[in-house]
Amino acid sequence: MTTTAKVKRGRKFDQVIEGARRVFLRDGFDGASVDDITREAGVSKATLYSYFPDKRLLFLEVAKGECRRQAETAVEFDDTDSAPETVLTIAGRRIAELASSDFGRSVFRVCVAEAERFPEIGHEFYKSGPGLVRQRLIAYLEGAVARGQLAIDDIPLAAAQFAELCRAEVHVRRLFHLDETFSAKRRDGIVRGAVEMFMSRYGVRNRD
Amino acid sequence: MTTTAKVKRGRKFDQVIEGARRVFLRDGFDGASVDDITREAGVSKATLYSYFPDKRLLFLEVAKGECRRQAETAVEFDDTDSAPETVLTIAGRRIAELASSDFGRSVFRVCVAEAERFPEIGHEFYKSGPGLVRQRLIAYLEGAVARGQLAIDDIPLAAAQFAELCRAEVHVRRLFHLDETFSAKRRDGIVRGAVEMFMSRYGVRNRD
DNA sequence: CGGACAATAGACCGCTTGGTTCAGTTCCGG
DNA sequence: CCGGAACTGAACCAAGCGGTCTATTGTCCG
């Protein structure tokens, strides 16, 4: 109780999670057998089942953990003093990076596949991924509007638009293996396009 | 040979496909058992296996068929005489509708889930869905630029941007069950936002 | 009307799965 | 260095899986 453990009841807990993480992200829920996981984790079946009552709960735990990890890599807006172009470019790069990374893609795939069977995973994913980005973007945009840097009527819509623009091409083409990688250059081009489009719509200079 | 059949070797062929379609779209590849499918199709196992050598091939056939169906509902650009705002609004509605429909969502989900195991399904889906939309949008935009209606430097990027803007919010929130339906009104609002943004970036009036 | 033959239903097979059990081994704090 | 908790490995189970096989039904042509 004094060290690290509280809920987790044994020394191999982390091994189990880590092994399950790798196998589930690679093979999905159905594709991963419990034996695969124990092998990957270097742990016996009995040990695994001493931590988790069944495969479903183990999966939920892993999936939620990955969603939390995803949240950690999400955008943050510290430097709100710079011009919107600058702030949005930096934020956009983070969004595009996550969308094209192996990690982001794997988590997305597995959450989409199992969102029907495990609805809470769907919610968790949204909340810690697109939802979080959306929320932080909204907060930033509100500030920028108040500061007179941007002119936006429907801020939630604008936030969704910007995020979606940064994922244009990148996400879908990686998901379906049309591109095996995205160069930083190409990604930056897409982000630049997103910022340009966003600014020409909501920048203070061009009011309609 | 005189009637309807040519390739398909029996009268229950369509029943099999239809049953498999329903079960696969509902439960995915692993989630669907062959017995489920025969039950749903009202057909015996032997009958099914007389048409398809194994479950994998049946799935591929169904998935490809659904991709073809998806292609049929994709955007088309007949009326290119109207103003870009009008043409894009109509096209955008089609894109947003498909993205938020049960059909579009199911096909997307199942293709994402199995794109790793069946790479050709990933390609087929892209080709008959986002890829087709992109291609047709590019063709239209090229025309509009030539006609002097729009000013676009990177047409493929612009096409991707527009399509993505129309799917903003709609797609993700439906995928993860944050909204069970999308009213036509709300959808139209998103499409209007997409068109406005697109026009303020690429409309001929606002050159930078 | 009858016989040949394809289509069919569903019992059946071998195998893998998630999950359990248990006798024995390792680890670690006191 | 001891005692108990954590861990192991393998054997084991029932259930469900994809796929096959055979006995029966239905159909069509002479």
TrEMBL record, chains A, B:
HTH tetR-type domain boundaries: 10-70
DNA-binding region: 33-52
UniProt KW keywords: DNA-binding, Transcription, Transcription regulation
Gene3D superfamilies given in the database record: Homeodomain-like (1.10.10.60), Tetracycline Repressor, domain 2 (1.10.357.10)
Signal sequence interval, chain numbering: none
GO molecular function: DNA-binding transcription factor activity; transcription cis-regulatory region binding
UniProt keyword Transcription present: yes
PANTHER family the record matches: HTH-TYPE TRANSCRIPTIONAL DUAL REGULATOR CECR, HTH-TYPE TRANSCRIPTIONAL REGULATOR RUTR
Protein name listed in UniProt: TetR family transcriptional regulator
Organism per entry: Allgaiera indica
